[in-house]
Amino acid sequence: MSVIDGKILLKNNPCFKSNQHMTPKGIVVHSTGADNPYIKRYVQPDDGVIGKNLYGNDWNNPSTEVCVHGFIGKDKLGNVRFYQTLPFDICCWGVGGGANGSYNYDPPYIQFEMCEDSLNDKAYCMNVYNKAVEVCAYLCKRYGFSPDNIVSHREAYEKGYGSGHVDPHNWWDRFGLTMYGFRNAVRAKLSGEKVKTKRDCRLYSRPYKDPVGGTVSYIAAKKGAVVRLAGDDGYGWSKVLCGGKTYYVMNNNLCKKGLSKCPKVRLTRDISAYEPMKKRLGKKHTIKKGKKAAVICTILSGKYEGYSYIKRNGKYYYARIN
Ligand SMILES: [Zn+2]
Questions:
Q1: Engineered SS bond to 150: which of 27, 63, 277, 322, CB 3.0-4.6 Å?
Q2: Of 10, 112, 9, 17, the residue nearest 61 (C-alpha)
Q3: How far apart are the CA of 2 and the centre of ligand 1, in A?
Q4: Is the pLDDT assigned to residue 121 strictly greater than 50?
Q5: What pTM value is reported for the model?
Q6: pLDDT at 1 (0 to 100)
Q7: Ligand 1 center to 22 CA (angstroms)
């Protein structure tokens, strides 16, 4: 299956018409800055998958003075897809210009938008992020540039090659996602790089552990076991391949620098934190507002779905932190 789910070229956009040829040297990642996760908001005509924009404010329009090579967002049914909207070998009008030039032209970068929603839906944000990793890995491979040449719009601005925007950090910051982790995830996707385990550890069937609820199975890996990296989730865990199967492992068990760490959060209210016991929650403690805790994972199924497994002062707890 291709990472490009659909192609609707914005032929009425003046950028498409200007048709300035380029050889892509990198990628600028944007997010739209508006609460509308649907591709149809920006891309038309409807191909039957994305749906129809009833308001005529899409970018396939002679009066639209911006354009990018693609969009990641929802189709009409809510599935996250990548739609290509310009040929990858013509310059887009995405990032604007800065003190040193513009990634629209010199050097020319492929650019895509990620359609923001209200910025509160972590699952949607992660789906878009993971799709963006796939798209970038595909483009790096196809055009032969390094993941080092992937920047956000904000980074383009900071380097003097774009206008003063902060996307997509305004969105990703909320869920602990970084460009650093993103480039690493692209790198891992490209290479399937082999890494060794740093100690005896567990490879889980899902990207979390649930020692109380027991919804996750695991295999034991010995120190020095070789696994293939298939993506860093940006929260301290990586997807790995081992013996032809997919597992998840905490990054601190891997001999590799630059992987993401479990986020530390400062509590915005007092929380109840329970000691993990076998098959049930143990003694209850209160951790006060303003204290910090490391979030090892959030449990995504079973009786303790929605709880986070946290570590504070060397002790582990189950708690609802948001
Ligand atoms: Zn932007």
A1: 27
A2: 10
A3: 25
A4: yes
A5: 0.65
A6: 47
A7: 20
Q: 322 C-alpha vs ligand 1 centroid, how far in Å? A: 29
Write the pLDDT tens digit of every residue in 131-147.
Answer: 999 999 999 988 988 89
Average pLDDT for the chain = 95
State the distance from the centre of ligand 1 to the C-alpha of 95, rounded, in angstroms.
Answer: 6
Q: Is the dihedral of CA 37, 43, 49, 54 positive or negative?
A: positive
In terms of CATH, what superfamily is 6-190?
Peptidoglycan recognition protein-like (3.40.80.10)
CATH class of 194-253: mainly beta
Q: How far is the CA of 45 from the centre of ligand 1 (A)?
A: 23
For 209-240, the pLDDT digits (tens) are 999 999 999 999 999 999 998 877 878 999 99
Identify whether 24 is preceded by a cis peptide bond (ω within 30 of 0): no
Total length of the chain: 322
In the chain, where are the structural domains located? 6-190, 194-253, 264-319
